[in-house]
Amino acid sequence: VLEDRAKWISEWKDLVTKISSDPISGKMLMVDILNEPDERNIGWDTLKDLYISVMDAVFPVNSGILFFVQGTGQTDRGTNWGDGFATNINTGSAKGFFDILITKPYLNQVVISPHVYP
Predict the structure, then answer these.
(1) How many CB atoms lie within 10 A of CB 39?
(2) Which of 111, 91, 112, 21 shows the shortest CA–CA distance to 62?
(3) pLDDT for 56-79, tens place per residue?
(4) What is the mean pLDDT of residues 96-117?
(5) CA distances in angstroms from 72 to 25, 51, 79, 88, 89, listed in the order given
(6) Whole-angstrom Cα distance, residue 30 to residue 107?
(7) Do 1 and 35 form a contact (C-beta atoms < 8 A)?
(8) Mean pLDDT value of segment 4-20
(9) Angle of helix 44-58 relative to helix 5-20, nearest 10 degrees?
(10) Model confidence pTM above 0.70
(11) What is the mean pLDDT of residues 26-31?
């Protein structure tokens, strides 16, 4: 992801374009943009740019798409992969992501999707 961000975004756009061309799949498309970002040691400054870049690139291709996003940077709280939304979104490290997200036309199509392993 970090090695060639432009290629990664281009591949997402290509994948969404191909799936969206199917009349059934294109109407039910949901994507998990980056699974378990904590595993890659990606902080919110980078993660928010990755998420927004992908969503900006593929939303025009399929305006009905749902985007699944996970948080990062809270492994010190004893949380699990993708749980980086535990902070207050008005002051926490995810604030920059939400500040940008609320200006986007796909706001209501973003699913906050942390997952927990027992």
Answers:
(1) 12
(2) 21
(3) 999 999 999 999 998 876 655 555
(4) 89
(5) 30, 12, 10, 14, 13
(6) 14
(7) no
(8) 95
(9) 40
(10) yes
(11) 96
